[in-house]
Each structure stands twice: as structure tokens, then as C-alpha cells.
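thought: user wants a sequence for this fold. calling inverse folding tool.
action: design(structure=
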């Protein structure tokens, strides 16, 4: 998700804009206060907007995970672990039982 600096117009992925409050702060609520990497201006990033595209990413990652076969290939196993970890972190926000069940089943199929 891109963020555009209101002061200089610099546009980049929101992750390139450094947090001003790394632990979050109650005053920001559902937004993050970030710093423009170009001019240093303080920019507000709405976390709610970033979640709008997360469901699409979750579908893409689940699709990739479903195509990984049971294997001894360490690279494929590491890719599967990384995808599972990312999807589990995302699902902590979404709490989708079907995704939870899918991840549990894939973990059994791939690692046990």
C-alpha cells in the first residue's frame, strides 16, 4: 500500500515511511504517525486502509501454500513455514476459522 507525503509529494510503500511511534500510541488510534524518508514530514497512515488489500494477499499466500508438496527440500519447507507464519499473523486480525483449519491441515501434511 502506497503512502504519499502531503508536504513533498513523495510516494512509496508505507513501509518506507519510518514509524514515529514504534509501539503505537492511543492518540493515533487506528492510524500510524510516520516520517517521510525524503523530507522528514510527519505523515498519517490509516491502518484500516492497509487492511483493505490484506484479504487479497491472504488468498494469494493460501494459494501458494496449497501448491507446496510434502518434500525434504529445505527451501520449500522454509517457504511453507514463512507463509504459514505470515498467514497466522494476518488471521489474528481476521479470525477466519476456515483459514485456521487450512493452516493446521497444511502443517500436518507438510511437516508431520
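)
observation: tool returned 112 residues.
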Amino acid at each position: 500500500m502506497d503512502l504519499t507525503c502531503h508536504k513533498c509529494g513523495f510516494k512509496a510503500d508505507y513501509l518506507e515511511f519510518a514509524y514515529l511511534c514504534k509501539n503505537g500510541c492511543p492518540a493515533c488510534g487506528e492510524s500510524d504517525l510516520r516520517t517521510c524518508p525524503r523530507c522528514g514530514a510527519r505523515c498519517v497512515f490509516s491502518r484500516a486502509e492497509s487492511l483493505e488489500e490484506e484479504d487479497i494477499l491472504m488468498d494469494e499466500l493460501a494459494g501458494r501454500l496449497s501448491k507446496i508438496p510434502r518434500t525434504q527440500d529445505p527451501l520449500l519447507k522454509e517457504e511453507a513455514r514463512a507463509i504459514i507464519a505470515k498467514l497466522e499473523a494476518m488471521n489474528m486480525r481476521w479470525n477466519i476459522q476456515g483459514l485456521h483449519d487450512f493452516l493446521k491441515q497444511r502443517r500436518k501434511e507438510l511437516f508431520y
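thought: summarizing for user.
answer: Here is the designed sequence. The two ends are 36 Å apart (CA to CA).
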